[in-house]
Design brief:
76% helix
Length: 696
């Protein structure tokens, strides 16, 4: 296709070489403005809008003209309606006035009828009471008597309940032989106290016979020492005491040669501690805590002995031998005593002699308790006899009053409760009997007054609420009669009623419907006429607006025709110019391209805008689908066509700078033949850089 430079030059040539004038822009501007006046389709353009305005004004003019023609007829109908409405109003007023007089008299008669009804109701009430109504004071008195009777009857009926009657009968049986006296009850309390005291004494005896579970005395119940064992143990203990005393004397004597003062101190201390041992052993019989005293004496004696032996380390061997002999005997005796004590379960932690002292004390206590138990057993038999006797007496006594219970304190409480209950029921029964007698007399007296009242007013029974209601109703009916009578008199004077109207009520419904219908029609017709008159007043304006719109439409059509004609002429001029200058170029291009079709292998052509197209597989395609080699051939054809048209007289020479570099050898051979043929018409200077592109 042509380059932009070539196109620019061609356009300037075609349009008179004026750079600021562009035919396409001018045509586009004309077409754009023309569309403002009229579009291809009816739409938002000036001519369509104006035609629409004219159509609307035409419709309004037609409507207004029709309304103007029909307006006299509507005015005539409005006048007729006004006359009909006036006639109906006059008739309605006259009938309404007559109806009012009839209604007033009917209302007057209604008041009189109500007064007569009240009078009749009052007479009927009087007839119920033999022509005379009782006073409210009489009714109040009778109400008080009736209330008193009801109260008395309630008291009469307020006797013992069925349960109480049954209970009273049972208690009568229980106390059929009389009630216990106060002395009897006091005697019962004494026996119960004596029985409880005997039981307490027996409990003390039983508690004293039982040893504590952790007592050391329990060991003797299963392992009581024999007399021989006791004698042997006492002998061993006495021998141990003698040996211990002699051993202590020898030890003290062995120290007499030493420090007399010091020996005296040890000797005194030893005697004190031994005395503590003996005193503790003796007192332990009465209180085990004195064992601690004996223990302190034993420990002190041992300490003094050790100190003395240390001090007297220089005692002669003869004395020492004697001491050793006695010490061995002492140990022998302790071992034998230990065997006995161990068999009875005594601990030797505080020494053999301490344990022996505890044994002696426990044995003596056990024997004392055994003696006490025998004595107590003898007294327990007498207490059991006493308890049995008292229990039998109390059981027999309470059973006689239907109380079977071994807890005699509770049984006595129940007996007293029965006595109180019996006396209470007996007292109430007597009181009720007297109340019934008194109430019956008073009720009879009150009933006599009530009977006189019934006889006086001809009544069979008394309904106080009904009587009071009748009294109030009679008073209201009498009051109503007086008020209604006065109201009728005043109403008659106010309305000027003299005689009863001789006409009947006229139903105004149909007349009112007709009148309302005519008034509705009149109102609607008034609205229509007002609207029609407004429409008629606007008729001249519609006609003026239509004339202006038609004039404007004519101007729009002229302008549109001028625009479209100008655009058409410009397009025709453009085509003529193109046919004159473009067609020769196109024809020459086609001539050259036809020569190359065998080389190109496709049919090539050019549009009016110098755009190259070609046919491939039956479809027309643009130059962008051509290969670079084919494009170079088309470019050559285009330039040859331009040269042919630009130079009419003489032919210029051509300079080719190897334009066929993109062709293969096969296609180049075909092009070479064409170039050689062209060289016969014009001089061609061909530049190439390769032997393969050499044209001879």
């Amino acid at each position: 296709k042509s380059t932009s430079g070539i196109n620019l030059k061609l356009n300037e040539f075609l349009q008179g070489d004026v750079s600021d004038v562009n035919l396409d822009k001018a045509i586009l501007s004309l077409d754009t403005v023309a569309k403002d006046y009229k579009k291809s389709r009816t739409g938002n353009d000036k001519i369509s809008k104006e035609r629409q305005t004219i159509d609307e004004l035409t419709s309004k003019i037609v409507n207004a003209s029709a309304i103007e023609r029909a307006l006299p007829q509507k005015l005539q109908r409005l006048s007729e309606l006004k006359g009909q409405i006036a006639d109906l109003n006059s008739r309605f007023t006259l009938v309404e006035k007559e109806n009012k007089r009839i209604n007033e008299y009917a209302h007057y008669e209604q008041i009189l009828a109500l007064a007569e009804t009240s009078s009749e109701n009052a007479k009927q009430i009087l007839n119920k009471y033999s022509g005379k109504l009782p006073s409210t004071e009489e009714i109040s008195k009778l109400q008080a008597l009736s209330l008193e009777n009801a109260t008395l009857k309630a008291k009469m009926g307020g006797g013992l309940s069925s349960e109480e009657e049954t209970r009273y009968g049972t208690l009568k049986t229980v106390f059929s032989n009389g009630e216990p006296s106060e002395d009897e009850l006091l005697g019962l309390e004494s026996k119960i106290n004596a029985l409880n005291t005997a039981k307490a004494r027996k409990q003390v005896i039983q508690n004293s016979e039982t040893f504590k579970a952790d007592s050391d005395l329990l060991r003797f119940t299963k392992n009581l020492p024999s007399a021989e064992q006791l004698a042997e143990m006492d002998g061993l203990a006495n021998e141990h005491k003698r040996i211990s005393e002699e051993l202590n004397a020898m030890r003290l004597g062995s120290e007499s040669t030493g420090n007399a003062k010091g020996n005296g101190v040890f000797l005194i201390s030893s005697f004190i501690f031994i005395a503590l041992i003996i005193l503790g052993a003796i007192l332990t019989v009465t209180n085990p805590l004195f064992l601690v005293l004996a223990g302190v004496g034993a420990v002190g004696t041992a300490v003094c002995l050790c100190l003395f032996l240390v001090k007297k380390s220089g005692v002669n061997s003869g004395v020492q031998a004697k001491i050793n002999e006695y010490s061995s005997k002492q140990m022998y005796l302790e071992n034998k005593i230990e065997v006995y004590l161990t068999s009875f379960g005594y601990s030797l932690a505080n020494g053999v002699m301490f344990a022996y002292a505890s044994f002696k004390k426990d044995y003596q206590s056990f024997m004392s308790l055994q003696k006490s138990k025998s004595e107590i057993k003898a007294g327990e038999v007498g207490i059991d006899n006493e308890i049995s006797k008292l229990s039998t007496e109390l059981n027999s006594y309470f059973i006689s009053y239907k109380i079977d219970e071994t807890n005699y304190v509770s049984a006595l409480s129940k007996l007293k409760s029965k006595i109180n209950e019996y006396n209470n029921l007996k007292s109430r029964s007597k009181s009720i009997e007297q109340t019934v007698i008194n109430a019956s007399a008073k009720i009879s007296e009150n009933n006599s007054v009530i009977s006189n009242f019934l006889s006086t007013y001809g009544l069979n029974s008394i309904d106080f609420n009904l009587i009071l209601k009748d009294i109030n109703l009679y008073e209201r009916e009498q009051k109503s009669y007086n008020e209604l009578t006065e109201k009728a008199r005043l109403y008659k004077e106010e309305k000027g009623i003299t005689t009863k109207p001789d006409k009947s009520l006229v139903d105004l419904t149909e007349l009112s419907v007709r009148l309302n219908k005519l008034m509705d029609e009149q109102s609607a017709l008034n609205s229509e006429i007002e609207n029609d008159e407004r429409q008629v007043e606007m008729l001249s304006g519609y006609e003026s607006d239509k004339a202006q719109a038609e004039q404007k439409l004519s101007e729009y059509n002229k302008t549109y025709d001028l625009l479209t004609a100008t655009s058409t002429l410009l397009k025709t001029a453009e085509q003529n110019l193109k046919d004159r200058y473009v067609k020769p170029v196109k024809d020459e291009f086609i001539k050259y391209s036809t020569l190359l079709e065998s080389t190109l292998g496709e049919k090539v052509t050019m549009t009016k805008d110098f755009e190259v197209t070609f046919e491939r597989n039956g479809q027309e395609r643009g130059e962008k689908y051509l290969s670079s080699g084919v494009k170079s051939i088309c470019a050559l054809c285009f330039r040859l066509a331009l040269i042919k048209n630009m130079y009419k007289g003489t032919s210029p020479f051509l300079i080719m700078d190897d334009p066929f570099v993109f062709l293969d050898n096969e296609h180049f051979e075909k092009v070479e033949k064409v170039v050689k043929a062209l060289s016969k018409e014009m001089q061609i200077i061909y530049f190439t850089c390769h032997e393969s592109r050499k044209i001879q």
